[in-house]
Amino acid sequence: MLMAEYQHHLIDARNATRQVTYRCPACHEVVCLHRGHQVAPYFAHRPQTACWSGGEGETAEHVTGKRQLALFFRPWGPTSFERVLPTIQQRADVWGARTPRPVALEFQCSPLAVDQVAARTAGYRQLGIPVIWLLGRRYARQRLNWRLIERYARWLPRWGLCLLFWDVADQCLRVKHHLQQDALGQYLGWVSRVPTLRAFLAGQPRTFHPRPLNLARVRHNWSLALLRGAAPLRPIQEQLYGLHHHLIQFPTVLASNQATPPIFGRGVLLWRILVGAWLFAAGPRVTPAQLQRWGWQALQLVGGQATAVQFSARPAVALALHALLTDLERTGYLRRATGGWVVQQQPQWVTDS
C-alpha cells in the first residue's frame, strides 16, 4: 500500500521515514515501511496480520502503476491512493474525485477469480460508484479470451465493449475495443494506444465489415470435426438428429456472416442453425416466448455465456433473434402475425454435402 496512518493523518510512503510507527488505514494494525532499489516505497502488514482490505505483496508494476494512473486521471479531479470504504470493506487503488460522481480505479496485475471481481464490482455499485478495471502486463500478454472478457470487459461510449490495459513502461493506456466475434466464433477487435484522458473520452468509433462466409469450407470443416468425434459439436448434432437433420446440411437461409458481441461461444452460425431448426419443426405458428426459450437453449449448446461481471448477454441474444427473424421474413419463410409469426414455407436442407 502507498498510504498509511500516522497520528490520524495519511502519509505517502515516499515521504515516510523508518523511525515512525505507521498503521493501516483500514484495520489500524501496525504496518512496515519498505524502501528498496527495485520497488518504490510502500507499506505492508506484518506477517500473519489479517486485514480485510488485502493489498499485500505488491509488485513494482502495481506500485508504480497506481501513481501513474493518479496522474493520468487527474484532469477529472483530485486523485488519491487507496481510498478506504469501510461500509463495503474495500479499498480503491486510486480514487478520482470526479464531478458529479467519484470513480474508483482498480489496477489489476495478478490473477483474480471471477467471483472476486464480481464481488468488488458489486461493492462499488452498492455505493453508486463506477469502477474502472485496468489490467497490467501479464494480462496484456494474453490472447483475447472469454476469461478476460467475462471479468473485465465493459461497454464504454465510442469504444464499444472493451478492455483497458495500463502500460507502466510506456505510461500509457491501451484499449482493446469493439470486441466482437465473427459468425464462426473467432474473437475480433482493435487495439489503440491512448496517451491522454482527453483522447480516452473522445473514443474511436469503428465499424466492422465481416467477410462473406465460405459455406462449402464451413461444411467441410464441420464434417471432419464430426468424424473425429469433436465434443463441442456433439450436443448440437444430437439435437438436429432428433429433428431428422444433419448439421452439415443446414439450409443456406440460416447462414449469416454477422459479427456479434463475444458471448456466442462457437459462433452465431451454429446458434442460428439450432434456433432455425426448432422454429421450423414447431410451426406453423411461433410465439415470442418460444423464440426466447430457444435462443437461450441454443446459447448454452454452442458454449455461449449468459452473464459477465459488467455486462449482460440479454441484448445480444435479442439482437441475434431479431436478425434471424428479419432474414426469414425477408426471404418469405416467415410472416409476422398477431401474437408471433407464421411459417410460410420450410427451408431445404442440403442433400449433397
UniProtKB/TrEMBL annotation:
Occurrences of domain Competence protein CoiA nuclease-like (ranges): 58-143
Superkingdom to which the source organism belongs: Bacteria
Pfam families (UniProt xref): CoiA_N (PF25164), CoiA_nuc (PF06054)
Residue stretches making up the Competence protein CoiA-like N-terminal domain: 15-51
Coiled-coil ranges per UniProt: none
Cross-referenced InterPro entries: CoiA-like_N, CoiA_nuc
Segments crossing the lipid bilayer: none
Protein name, as recorded: Competence protein
Organism: Levilactobacillus spicheri
